[in-house]
Amino acid sequence: QVQLVESGGGLVQAGDSLRLSCAASGRTFSGFRMGWFRRAPGKEREFVVAIYWGDGTTYYPDSPKGRFTISRDITKNMVYLQIDSLKPEDTAVYYCATESPPLSTMWKTVYAYSYWGQGTQVTVSS
User: Fold this and answer.
1) What is the per-residue pLDDT across 27-46, written as a single tens digit (0 to 9) for each?
2) Nearest in space to 96 (alpha carbons), one of 46, 11, 8, 21
3) In this structure, are residues 91 and 61 in contact, taking their beta carbons and an 8 Å threshold?
4) Do residues 100 and 85 lie in contact, with contact meaning Cβ atoms separated by under 8 Å?
């Protein structure tokens, strides 16, 4: 059973940095992308960035968010999202997800990801 558990969220001030973590278990993730999404209040879930577990290739949206950096530690089965220069508009619940089936062409959408974590709240005060 695939499990994804996010952590690292909290209340921070504008300009701060934060690193979110996602602990992944339950299957071999090699061959799949891991993605980070977020949902701000009153908005739909939004793709942030993804990474291919096998070689670390990263996937950014059409309008890349230069303040977001994804990485993974294959020895620990962890995926990280570093967010720098946080802004109040970054306030959202951040979700980790893994795609299934692998290498979907819809990797920028929620439809490519079958397994999700419970999310971690990030609140940025101005």
Assistant:
1) 889 889 999 999 999 999 99
2) 21
3) no
4) no
